[in-house]
Amino acid sequence: MSIYGDYIKSVIRTVPDWPQPGVNFRDITPLLQNSAAFRKLIDSFVHRYQEMDLDAIAAIDARGFIIGAPLAYELGCSFVPVRKKGKLPFRTISETYTLEYGQSEVELHADAFQHGDRILLVDDLIATGGTMCAAAKLITRSGGHVVETATIIDLPELAGSDKIREAGFGVFAVCSFTEDE
């Protein structure tokens, strides 16, 4: 957890029973609307990664972009979007992953990375880990090396962070929530 983890967590809104009964949705919009909290959020990532030799920040469509772009700027890295299928205009490579009710796919421009590039992969939240694992595999297939995966929120009870670690990728979360929080 980050030095600002408790503060960041206190700014995130929990919306009970959305999008369906029994689900506690973790809403980051209050965090984004609070300029001091948003600065502390980005600073949490900058402080963790400023001494690492990174070539790029890869961010997952779409909320990962909110973190990835300012982080890439602050760290002097390139920014690479990992998009949902059909959203990138150039030649792509893709990775399919399983959702609770079906499958989805993420894509990356085929020329996004050079062999051996050191990549930080970011998103807003880890739930079941499917999207993050698919994006990390995609980066690896493209020749990049995923240094770590990073997120604002981890939901450890859903075991996504365990799944990502089992796939061989490190995980950093600014904060985490249990289901009853």
UniProtKB/TrEMBL annotation:
Its EC number is 2.4.2.7. CDD domains: PRTases_typeI (cd06223). The keyword Glycosyltransferase applies. It is an enzyme of class 2 (transferase). GO terms for molecular function: adenine binding; adenine phosphoribosyltransferase activity; AMP binding. Its main location: cytoplasm. It catalyses: AMP + diphosphate = 5-phospho-alpha-D-ribose 1-diphosphate + adenine. One of its GO terms (cellular component) is cytoplasm. Pathway: Purine metabolism; AMP biosynthesis via salvage pathway; AMP from adenine: step 1/1. Gene3D superfamilies: 3.40.50.2020. Residues 33-158 form the Phosphoribosyltransferase domain. Pfam families: Pribosyltran (PF00156). It is found in: Cytoplasm. InterPro entries: Ade_phspho_trans, PRTase-like, PRTase_dom, UPRTase/APRTase. GO terms for biological process: adenine salvage; AMP salvage; purine ribonucleoside salvage. Belongs to the purine/pyrimidine phosphoribosyltransferase family. Catalyzes a salvage reaction resulting in the formation of AMP, that is energically less costly than de novo synthesis. Homodimer. PANTHER family: ADENINE PHOSPHORIBOSYLTRANSFERASE. This is Adenine phosphoribosyltransferase. It comes from Onishia taeanensis.
